[in-house]
Amino acid sequence: MKTLPDNPNLDHLRRQAKDLLTGLRDIRPDATLADAQASLAEQYGFRTWTDLKAEADRRRGHAEVADPALARRIAGRFGLGDVVGEMRSVSRPDEMGRRWLLQTGRGRWAPRTVDDVYPVTDGEDNARFQEAAARAGVTLPAPVRSVSGAVVEVIDGSQWRVYEWLRSGPPLAAPVSATVTGKVGDMLATLHGLRVPVDGTCPWSSVRLASSSWPELAEVAAAEGAGWAPVLAAAVPTLAELESVGNRAAPAAAVLCHNNVSPGNVRVGPDGRLILTGWEHADGLPPAWELAAALVSWAVIPAGGSTPRGRGLWPTVIGRGPAACHR
């Protein structure tokens, strides 16, 4: 589920709805702006577009302000220049930490805490991957190294990273247009074509974390009297079959992948280019695994259903030479 930023921008929500409308009309030519607004509200966890706007109005201007001394320490440690304004939170804490906006005499910066990154990393390989991707043509917020050359610095008990602040629109929301999915396919092909070597596959993506089987979960649901228990019980054979897919397959060698190329990590820049964010989970994956995850993120409609062939993502990625590993 999407989450609103700490200081929601109604114009951003309207733009998200208009972008979403373009994607919906690829599937349903008669889709209206009201349909897109309703879908977007649902993705944010609200019953109606009116409810979403009301919450955005209520939260506007409620970003938290960091201790000025902390802002100065971050700016000093990363060589960002003199702080000229308040350091304000951008969003609620996520699974890793929290994102902030800091303005100095040299420009705008995006510091964030990375206290709970899994697997644990010092960010060095991650930053080199981003730098290589940028040289290959992927647009992204450039990682900033500290004055000591480190990617991550411990400041006031938290691990901090800093990125350049790039002006952009809001994060995208699925479904998106065929043009956008084609551009996402281009980015994936570029990243995988770098073939950055890595020591093994990301443990989060390669190990099944659930200890209970589907039949066991169905039995627990039935015992608890859950209203959806019969639906789960009926789906158990299909779920068990899907779980076995690939058991005997030998995955391709892992390379360094972004590991989260989802609509929430992609924005549109002023020049129309896509900006890829959220690099903190970059780790080793067989490229086809990341492609499969991207297809789910971009080609599955949140309210149910899927889009034809990922509307450009699949044919774009497999059709390029650097991405031959997907075939």
From TrEMBL:
Coiled coil feature spans: none
Domain Aminoglycoside phosphotransferase: 98-299
Pfam families for the chain: APH (PF01636)
Species this protein is from: Actinoplanes auranticolor
Protein name (Swiss-Prot/TrEMBL): Aminoglycoside phosphotransferase domain-containing protein
Gene3D superfamilies on file: 3.90.1200.10
Classification via InterPro entries: Aminoglycoside_PTrfase, Kinase-like_dom_sf
